Amino acid sequence: MEEKTLITKDMIINDVIKKYPKTITVFSNYKVDSCCGGGFSIEKTAGMAGIDMDSLLKALNKIALAGSK
Fold it and tell me: Where are the domains of the chain?
């Protein structure tokens, strides 16, 4: 069974937080700047910080999927 993905690397951080408020904890845990960097894509902001994109997206989608059940 294919894993469902709700959040992709090209999504804007502020949009993700607005749609899935609990993801702010994940962004904080990964030290992703959701304040000043929140207007940019996850890929741009996390990439500038050298964060593992696959790991971040997996964590974000786990939270988003849990909230949508």
Answer: 13-67
1-60 confidence digits (pLDDT tens): 445 679 999 999 999 999 999 999 999 999 998 888 889 999 999 989 899 999 999 999
Determine the Cα angle at 52 with ends 41 and 17, to 5°: 40
Contact by Cβ (8 Å): 43, 10 = yes
CA distance 26 to 17: 10
Beta-bridge partners for 30: none
Tell me: the pLDDT tens digits for 14-27? 999 999 999 999 99
Altogether, the residues listed in the chain come to a count of 69
2 Rama sector, left if φ>0, alpha if ψ -120 to 50, beta otherwise: beta
